[in-house]
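Re: that chain you flagged

S.,

Sorry for the slow reply, it's been a week of failed gels. I finally had a moment to sit down with the sequence you sent. For the record, here it is as I used it:
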Amino acid sequence: MEQNSDRHESSLAAAMSRRGFLGTLGALGGAAALAACGGTSKPGAAGGALGSGAAGTAYNGPNVTLAFWNGWTGADGDFAKKMVSEFNGQHPKIKINMNVYQWADFFQKLPAAVQSGNGPDVSVMHIDDIPTQAAQQVIVPIDSIANALKLDQSQFAKAVWDGGTYKGKRYGIPIDVHDLGMYVNQDLLDQAGVSSIPTDENSYMNALDKLKSKGIQGCWVSPFQFTGAFMFMSLLWQNGGDLYNSDTTKATWDSDAGVKSLKWLLGLISSGYSPKNVGQDADYISLKNSKNAFNWQGIWQVDDARKQKAKIVTAPLPKIGSQGGVWGNSHQFVLPRGNNDPNKQAAARFVINWFTAHEAEWAKSAKVPAETKLAQSSAFTQDLGYLKSFAQDVPNVHFPPSVAGIGDATQKLYDAFQAAILGKSSAESALHSSAKQATDILASNKKKYG
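Prediction finished late last night. Pasting the structure tokens below so you have them in one place:
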């Protein structure tokens, strides 16, 4: 997406009191303006951990160079480079060097780099990775930054805010939400005589029947985590189920709600609404090629979808169950352990401050702003209207619980889901066996991480 800082500062950033305030300060000269408006942080005040000083509201120290690691390998990485360039131009005392890795490589490199004292000064990770990295002491608590920025739960969806904590301490500062939505090939709907985008099970199935009568398999079910398993999770929540019990000691996706959700997806295949053995990303590719009408897909495909010859629009997920439920995740800023330079510590906190103050600009990389007020503002929906449907679904978004090692347990679900969709296992057997395996992993992780 084209960057337009002037429009951002005049409309999107102004949509929120704190964000608008800090965005205006950035236009007036960054750190100097913040200091002029009462920033009292002094570089070096924090020591090895995060103290009350150097909480990120200003940087007045000597020139420093910061390593910023993330896994933004797609179009959001290119947009992040633009923002880093903007920051470096505004703040000559702080130079950010951004290193981008595939997420799998990122989490292989980060712990070792931190342990050796060569880790980054600031980083970003997903909500479901924060607990494990916190338990392994790869990242440090940053409650002081949240306090300095006067952030609290009331400004965010509860799942977004809680996802940045681990054992009562805050480790992540949210900058976005990226959730599942429904991509619709409007050309195919018009061809099949579907007058409106479906919003519930009845209208969804009616649309699929009309599409099928025209020889169109309207909802391809992928056996892969991206995005078939995310479809299953969304349906699980819509049907009143959950991935885990309340204290995260047991996997519960094999509940009646889970079996019902998986069988619903299998029914799409057996009824001919989806082909069998859908390849990785083939569900989305078929949408672009006008062979698939509905694709439950992540927000990260918005920019690509807008470039297609076919008319592709987005909409909230249909409510197949009795309540809302949407898979989602959130990027959050974190501070890796091991940086003992007090000036770099202060500068890193100011970087987090700056990026979250420019959250509206970051939304142009195809993300929903983390703060509810901004995501629901008329400025956001007018300037980035193609993201509106994703923002509408944020109140229905669910995240994995804040438990160390949760990804290892959830992986068992992904494997089981694939086996069931490919016809290698029944829905009941796949869900029951994987839930038992995941429950064993939860018990093991409790001993491992405490």
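What I noticed first: The first helix runs from residue 5 to 12.

Talk soon,
D.
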